[in-house]
Amino acid sequence: MKIMEKIKAKARASVKRIVLPEGDEARTVKAAEIIASEGVAEPILLTPDFIAAAENKARLETYAADLYELRKAKGLSEEAAAKLAADPMYYGMMMVKEGDADGLVSGAVHSTGDMLRPALQIIRTAPGMKLVSSAFLLESPRTEFGEDGLLVLADCVVNPCPDAEELAGIAVATAETARTLCGFEEPRVAMLSFSSKGSAEHPLVEKVRKAAETARAIAPDLILDGELQLDAALIPEVAAIKAKGSPVAGRANVLIFPDLQSGNIGYKIAERMGGASGFAVLQGLAGPCNDLSRGCSVDDIVNTVAATAVQAGNRRRRD
Ligand SMILES: CC(C)(COP(=O)(O)OP(=O)(O)OC[C@H]1O[C@@H](n2cnc3c(N)ncnc32)[C@H](O)[C@@H]1OP(=O)(O)O)[C@@H](O)C(=O)NCCC(=O)NCCS
User: Is the link from the previous residue into 227 a cis peptide, with omega within 30 of 0?
Assistant: First the structure.
């Protein structure tokens, strides 16, 4: 992916510590070597042996105590917290939470939910953010779309059924990811639906319309329009017919799907039938954590670590 060269260059400019909880997995070990040798990040490989080592005992005890404090109101016992803290995924999350690492990447072995749940419970949302969601960086060989073929899509991974307010939050967060991670100078956000500008009436369309209004109220300077069909969002000739005068239609570079089913199906159609490729990053977390597909390659891990490192550099801090 062309975008990766830019992301890697940004990551190299300010080296971040990225923890890899699946530290005894072969692709992860290989990726860590490349990450270190290319200077993309400082990888920290976690293994159960590393965590249990005598010299790391004090840190494990601190994480267990802090995890208990964080989750006791939710029913976590001290014994359960001690056990969870020794699990590399939870230990890694605690490292990010406590500033001992700048970000985390996992998923070569664990499922999305296995990684998302502890991230949501421990790292939680960034200041001012209500929702964690994902942004999918999709690069198409068709350079007339988006920014030289690059489009940012959401939410294709996390929230099954966002309501209008949540959808508005996803749109604003994704525009920020497009700007800060992908370098888009002018994110142009299309709120997607099966209707363009009132061509159909349905409660599902109404939700997208309301989300567009809410997003405009949250971020009045953002170039955003909806509801729009995908063809009206991307193709100037269709936009001229279906959404004349729209500041986004025909030139969108950020696409917001109305729910997870359409988002997940949408990016897979683009990849499998359209020859596009890409990967997702999480947005809205207080510290960057990213998920891999279990079928990932060594390169995918290197790329996701680089993106995580850049997100760590852009992170909103709680002062
Ligand atoms: C994200 C997901 C893992 C949450 O799992 P869940 O079992 O529903 O978890 P819960 O609802 O118990 O939430 C766990 C915690 O995370 C919080 N949370 C859940 N979704 C959240 C979100 N999108 N943003 C911020 N916080 C969120 C909850 O408030 C809860 O916090 P608490 O325990 O402190 O009260 C779930 O929505 C999911 O599985 N999404 C789809 C993921 C997936 O399979 N994608 C496939 C494509 S790869």
Answer: yes
Atom of ligand 1 nearest to the CA of 132: 24
Longest Cα–Cα distance in the chain: 69
| 172 and 97 together in one domain | no
Pairing of strands 103-106, 223-228: unpaired
Q: Read off the pLDDT of residues 281-302 as tens digits, 9 standing for 90 and up.
A: 999 999 999 999 898 999 999 9
CATH number, domain with residue 234: 3.40.50.10750
Ranges of residues in the chain with a pLDDT under 70 are 316-319
Residues with CB under 6 A from ligand 1: 74, 112-113, 116-117, 120-121, 125, 131-132, 157-160, 264
Measure the CA–CA gap between 190 and 247, rounded to whole angstroms: 10
> What is the pTM (predicted TM-score) of this model?
0.94
Between strands 188-192 and 223-228, the pairing is parallel
